[in-house]
Amino acid sequence: MTETPISSRRRGYLRPQGTEFSKSARHRDSVLSLGSIRHVQSYFARTGLLDGKGGQLSRGDIKKNQVKSNDTNTEVKEDEERTFNADNDDETMLPPTVSTYRPKVIESQPPPNLEELRDDLLRNLESSRQVLQETEDNNRSDSVVDIAPDSQDVTAIEEKQGWYEVQGLHILDTVTLTIRAAKDYYTLHPQPEIMFNIKSEREIRGDLYQVLDVLKRMANRNFAQGIKAQERTDILNWISSIKMLLDQEQSLREEIHSLRSQWPWLHDEGRNSWKGRAREREHAFLSSFDNSTVPLPRWTEQLLDPETESPTGPSPFLSSLASGLRLVQLHNSLVKQSSRHFGEITFFYTDTAKPYRCAENLRFWIKAAELRWEVKLGLNDGDVLDIVYDRRDKSIWRKFDGAVLKWCTNVREELSREWTSIDNHVDGNNNDV
Fold this sequence. Notes:
The chain is an all-alpha fold.
């Protein structure tokens, strides 16, 4: 006699069973957050919310039936008790209004600093060099007992080919890891412009593609006859070029760090060291990046004529900037000092003999300041013409002086923050700047 299985029904409703989803939908957020109709029905049935409201059974009816017909309904009662005990073995069913969705918490690690990337790249470069050297030594020792071309020993030939395949796959894995480490170093470098000053980005990418092409040729011929001498030489030359690039980059970074330590405007030596000397500080800042053969004149504040109390003419410093050419050149030079290489003024007039060319240079500088450095100088087209034609009846020079001072302050502060953040990233310091 077969045993009657425990019923999965409770008051006319099926207990919710596990739902099988497809592999593509098994980890989808929209599927995991969906409710179950069977879950709602079973919850209402178990808690008695449907009693007397359309449910098939009610608690009062059950009690009456149990009192009146204890003998005839014994099997039903035992079945319900077994079902109740089976239900209690499971976890407590939550109300359908309670969300059981638990989003996956992804803990992202901070990106590695420059020293970690450099050590990883050097370690992979040395591993690749050692593998290539070991392969060369093994092939040289095997050449003493090399098989003759007309040999009929098929087994020996197959064994030698299998050894070449093992060697080739080992080289392929090691050099591929080295290429990935080099790619990470290039893409995650906080100051890629330093590398590109040594070697252009196009040349660096070309060297990577050349090594990948060597590995592709080796794999296409199934590493027959082992790695060739020219292929080994190409990979070793690439390894040597990467090490040379790292050494040159390290030297250049040390030179830049030493140069920045000599800039007095970059750091406040005391709490109020530059207080009241804003123009002196910004003049030193501009002079550090001015590539003109003629040095910038001393920057003095624009004063009023004591007799007429009217604005005076431009100072020698402002006169040197009135054509807009020097401001454009300073802007481009400062953009190159930043890791965000965009917003450079590519077209401007070097011949400023005509006034409209000076006005165009000033307009280019004003617009570039707004787009690249996010600072509005407050100079309109009328102010530009007043500067070009030196209209002294207006206080245009005091306004121009204030605009240049505002521009210098914003650019210097942005570059200082950026350099400090990069230095902390290079040194592995995660403290807030």
